[in-house]
Amino acid sequence: MNEFEVAITDLSHDGQGVARIDGKTVFVSGALLGEQVRLRIRKRHRNFDEAETIEILTPSPHRVEPRCSHFGQCGGCSLQHLDAAAQIEAKQRVLVDNFARIGKVEPESWLPPLTDEAWGYRRKGRLSVRAVAKKGRVLVGFREESNPRFVADITHCDVVHPALGPKIGLLGELVGGMEAAADIAQIEFAAGDDTIALVFRHLKPLSESDRAKLVAFAQQHGFAIYLQPGGVSSVHPLWPEHPRLAFRVPAGEGVDDVELEFQPLDFVQVNAGLNRRMMLRTLELLDPQPQDRVLDLFCGLGNFTLPLARRVAEVTGVEGEHGLVARAADNAARNGITNARFQVANLFEDQRGTDWARKPWDKLLLDPPRAGADKVLDYLPHKETKRIVYVSCHPASLARDAGILVNQHGFRLKAAGVMDMFPHTAHVESIALFERR
């Protein structure tokens, strides 16, 4: 028997409903907490099963009609069927649970959720490309929700930047008309404040005819086109000759904003509007003072470093990727900032012998990748550090590191909260403030 009627008792970390059948956990796509559904088992595993919803028997009061006609097929979003307030509540529950279960800590107060526009927010991403003989055309889009090996057959995307989202289908037509249709592996996109770049990864050299088609498409739709014939270092502009990608971030009231230039494959925060709000909250929590010396770890392009430099005596940003550090330094010079320094260092290796790790910093900012910052916390912060702000893209690693800061370094977890960097997905971005006891 593959069909069952079940009650959904939870939401998983990736936004699927959770049920139990004969004591075994079942993850149910398309189902929401509190619903009674009929499901069909799609795949069985030793410790859990995967299923799809085939009928909603008792809907959640928070269920809404998905805006996108591709919802359920495309794997780009998993929560469009859940209203916005309930999405935030679900993410908050994940953060609360991780603090309690993993870190064994609880914030003294919860910050109000940070949100921005829920549609057209995505300025960075990767679109898969697949020439499908059975369909007689090229598909461009995100991976399918039920089978990530396949590219979802979509014509538009409501969460991608509005200058690009409605034109996903046109990209498929463009590639389908190229001689290299079978040799385009992916298209990455990156949007600055004024320019949208498309990076075409091609497995074989492009003909002059194909290059001309890309240029014509760029001119018609206002895109910058880059080509990537090999690794990341091979990326170069096709048209225009010298495109410029940049975005502005605030440095707080009464202080000039900072403009950051970047390359199309650089890491930048996906949600431009939320990034601006996150910056202001970070400044509020870190409370930078003119005499402060601040260390910014996992600094990237200087997204936090340079706005902080406008408000403190000294700031040093540390990042493991050489290209990002070089561009961060260039951005400092371009903005007339002279009190920011940048260092290249692998923060997942012991760096306690470096000059920057030995210095007595007043405040510390952490914005690590999913793995978190536990390796850094073996030797930082020093006793001189009184305040830490931790920006996290993974609640489990934040919770683990919060436990380290509280139990091993003598900090209090003063406040924490979620930030909706990826609306309509189950991704949980969060921020936490720690103060020395």
Account of the protein in words:
The chain is of the alpha/beta class and 437 residues long. Helices cover 21% and strands 30% of the residues. The chain has an eight-stranded mixed sheet, with helices on both faces. A six-stranded mixed sheet has the order 1-5-6-4-3-2, with no helix packed on it. Strand 14 (246-249) and strand 15 form a beta hairpin.
Quick recap:
This protein is an alpha/beta fold and 437 residues long. The chain is 21% helix and 30% strand.
Largest sheet: 8 strands, mixed
Q: How are the strands ordered across the major sheet?
A: 7-21-22-20-19-16-17-18
Portion of residues within helices: 10-25%
Q: Which residues sit in consecutive blocks of at least 5 with pLDDT less than 50?
A: none
Strand content: 25-35%
Q: What's the mean pLDDT score?
A: 96
Write the SSE topology.
Layout (H helix, E strand, L loop, with lengths): L2 E5 L2 E2 L5 E5 L2 E6 L6 E9 L3 E11 L25 H20 L5 E2 L13 E9 L4 E5 L26 H9 L7 E8 L4 E7 L5 H14 L1 E6 L7 E4 L6 E4 L8 E4 L10 H15 L6 E5 L7 H5 L4 E6 L2 H13 L5 E5 L10 H4 L4 E4 L20 E6 L2 H13 L3 E9 L9 E8 L1
Parallel strand pairs: 4-6, 7-21, 11-12, 16-17, 16-19, 17-18, 19-20
Antiparallel strand pairs: 1-5, 2-3, 3-4, 5-6, 8-9, 8-10, 10-11, 12-13, 14-15, 20-22, 21-22
